Amino acid sequence: MGIKVAIMGATGAVGTELLDILAERKFPISELRLLASARSAGKTLQFQDEDIKVRELTHDSFKGIDLVLASAGGKISKEFAPSAVKAGAVVVDNTSYFRMTEGVPLVIPEINPEDIFKHKGIIANPNCSTIIMALPLWPLHKRFKIKRVVAATYQAASGAGAVAMDELVSETAAYIQGQDFNRTVIPHPYAFNLFPHNSPMTENGYCEEEIKMVKETRKIFHDDAIRVTATCVRVPVLRAHSEALNVEFEEEPDIEEVYALLRAMEGVEVMEDRANNRWPMPLDASGRDPVLVGRVRKDSSQPKTLDIWVVGDQIRKGAALNAVQIAEKLFKT
After folding, report:
1. Domain residue ranges of the chain, discontinuous segments joined by +
2. Which CATH superfamily is domain 130-314 in?
């Protein structure tokens, strides 16, 4: 028996990636329902050589559906996810709306798969920057116990969606040609520039993206004692986020053991060529599933602390792939 699946936000960057990953991983689908806004209804998307027409999302869209993969934005999930649950579906939500809601599991399957089965109809997918950081840190936390993480992120246009990626390409071309460019998605000059993350600023001086990394890491690790601080930066890269992590542990970590733990961690790949000063780059991670790790070294300024460089595809493991992995475990495929 196949699974009846609906994708909410099917025409967006994550929605179209979900289609690719479901096909690649041969997820057992008996019916696929593609849902989007009224303006996208009627468009056609391809899945496994079949053209499927996009339907308008309504509260009646979920009848008979087993699984909803939601990636249409927090306001849409807030409005429509309860209707999906009421209709009998389980929602794997890729927005931020339910992540910190009590009783809603927040899951990275390689870290806390047992939380999946505590759901009450909704399972939350973590923020992309959190996933890319947490995945390689988990085995190190289990062995040496993390006290504090200082993270600096270098986030690609993909985090703001397909339209932002298109805008970066167009603005870069306009800049090279000396033409004016009217941006509509990114609020600041983006080509050949970077700026602190453009998510809403809060009263304590942290933007929402930075606060997500703090709170979500604690929830996923089930450890409120971990201290996390982050500075998130938007950089002119199409896809794949990079992060520089400074991690303090309770025990002194052994570098050789750290590398062994990282190489053994599912979903992590060590990539480095020290002789040629070559480390993971966004182009290495783009379109790939693993979070890439390299340049692990002891912090010379204080004991029990490592510097770690990580890079991951924001659309795949940072969003769509993680959601599909949750669904695979949920339905034991």
Report:
1. 3-126+319-330, 130-314
2. Dihydrodipicolinate Reductase; domain 2 (3.30.360.10)
d(CA 244, CA 23): 33
Q: Report the C-alpha gap between 270 and 292 in whole angstroms.
A: 6
Q: Could you identify the residue written with the tokens 């579906």?
A: 89
d(Cα 76, Cα 84) in Å, to the nearest integer?
12
Return the number of other C-beta atoms located less than 10 Å from residue 177's C-beta. 8
Contact call for residues 194 and 235 (beta carbons, < 8 A): yes
Nearest CA-CA partner of 9 in 69, 82, 88: 69
pTM of the model: 0.95
- Among the options 119, 128, 141, 197, which is catalytic? 128
Residue 96's Cβ-side half-sphere holds a number of Cα atoms within 13 Å equal to: 14
CA 176 vs. chain centroid, Å, equals 31
Q: Please say whether the beta carbons of 259 and 173 come within 8 A.
A: no
**Among 119, 141, 197, 241, the one annotated catalytic:** 241
Distances (CA, A) of 134 to 83, 146, 219: 31, 11, 11
Residues 6+ apart with CB under 8 A from 252: 144, 303, 304
**CATH topology for 3-126+319-330?**
Rossmann fold (3.40.50)
Told to judge if 241 belongs to the known catalytic residues of this protein, a careful annotator would answer yes
- Model confidence over 183-238: pLDDT tens digits? 999 999 999 999 999 888 888 999 999 999 999 999 999 999 999 999 999 999 99
Q: Is 232 designated active site? A: no
Task: Please give the structure tokens belonging to residue 86.
Answer: 């009421």
